[in-house]
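Fold these two proteins, one after the other.
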Amino acid sequence: MLNQAVIPFSDTTSNSQSIRADTLQPRVTYVISCHNHERYIESCVLSVLEQNYHNIELLCFDDGSRDRSASILRRLANDYGFFFKQTENRGFTATLNEALSLATGEFFCVLGSDDLALPGKTLRQASYLATHPESVGCTGAAQIIDENSHLVDKQPPAAEADFGFSDFFTGRGLPFVASSAMYRTRALRMIGGYNESIRLEDLYLALKLTEQGDTLHNLSEPLVKFRSHRKNTSKKLAYMYNAILETLANYESHPDYRRVVSSYSKRFYRRAMRTGDSTLAQAAFRNIRKCDFDLKLLRRMLKHWIFAKSANNESGRDRTTNASNRRPQNSRL
């Protein structure tokens, strides 16, 4: 059993980059939950501490890391005076619910422990929410970086607009990076916080926060650097598909439920075909309604069927050839 180590938040520190209260600004709570990210965690924390916004509360957790993440966080917490807690590996959403219970900020952000907050993120979002009480939160674009922090892509600029339940439910809404979001803490508590049985917490939150008519606002500019790990692409794709279905299952009684599941399944079927993931392609295919088949999809299916048949025939010939080569030379036919 891992002993819990807690370093409480302190408002007093001599470092000029410390977190300090400023009553002229709404307090913003940042949560960073780390698991085996020793390579990235310090730069992640510093990207929050170096924001041009003074009234920040930083809550950091190490969720059972087996590398040096916890010791790095403990050192930073001692140096800068923010809250740090080390626990067993209990899961991401369980940690977020504890953070939500501790948060004293009017606004609430979760930053991935391998991501970075861009300069000005906090001021931009807090200023927007402070002057737009009709929005329960706001998101933004992201710069995509690789394992070595090199810029590899950018989300295409999206229009600055409000998005509601129908947008997120049908998938027409902006697919935002979770680290870019800032929510009203009160709104998160009103929906009961995070559902610990749901793996895709950002889609779940977007649906729950907007199902009563509220909206999330998208800010068009990049707010974070999101780290994309290229390994296990097929595994991640299958995980995302299953997590989306798991989230949508909460709305089975919605009249558009079957249509929405079919629409998501078509998208993942195409992506699975592009990556050669036949298992995911078959799973997604079973959830596509017959009325949703179009000529483009049928052509893709035919191409996949021909390729699979050709591969099977080639594999069969290889097995026959190998068996023939292994036959003893003196065997009687």
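Now the second one:
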Amino acid sequence: MLNPYYALITDQRESGEALPSIEIAAKIAKALNISLDYLSELSDTELDSILLSRINEITSLPDEEQKQIFTVVDALISDYKAKKVNSK
């Protein structure tokens, strides 16, 4: 499995589509607690390990905190999808 972030950026670059904004990439990197440079070079195993670690951290939080995190994640995903649709 490809690193989904690297695959997304590569696919968009090759197809001529707009790349994710630096703000979105920075938010992804911040959420994963990694640098933007590292994000662009992740292997599948490293990404899976990071995501699993973050999911474990989230599930250890109180329910209200989990809801807030998922609200932010859902908003970021919706924003990305809207931008993708509007850019066509």
